[in-house]
Specification:
This protein is mostly beta strands. The chain is built from 1 helix and 5 strands; from the N terminus they run βββββα.
Length: 114
């Protein structure tokens, strides 16, 4: 009888900070712990390169990641699920129409009648 060893993998929850690479996203995981001497809560942040083969993650998403075998020099995690999609604007600043009076300087540079 060969007993199968249960593989316990670490899970983390974090926010996608970069999705510019192909099949890889950068996830920032924040943790809170108490300082051993001063007993004050210290916030620390660590980033992970995470494998995302279907490219389902976008900037600002909250995702759950799980530990996996080494996939590259820096990738040891993969996306387990997307917990919450980001609420980013769909229109870019360059696409916002600007009224002509705002281009000319607006109210700040109006001529004062003499």
């Amino acid at each position: 009888m060969d007993k199968e060893k249960a593989i316990i993998r670490k899970k983390r929850t974090g926010t996608v900070t970069s999705a510019k690479m192909e099949k890889t996203v950068v996830v920032a995981v924040e943790s809170l712990r108490r300082h051993h001497r001063y007993q004050r809560v210290v916030r620390s942040q660590r980033t992970f390169h995470v494998h995302d083969p279907e490219r389902i993650c976008s900037l600002g998403d909250v995702v759950q990641i799980i530990e996996t075998r080494p996939l590259s020099k820096t990738k040891r995690w993969r996306v387990l699920e997307v917990l919450r999609k980001a609420q980013l604007a769909e229109i870019q600043p360059a696409e916002v129409p600007v009224p002509p009076e705002a281009k000319a300087g607006g109210a700040a540079q109006q001529e004062v009648p003499a």
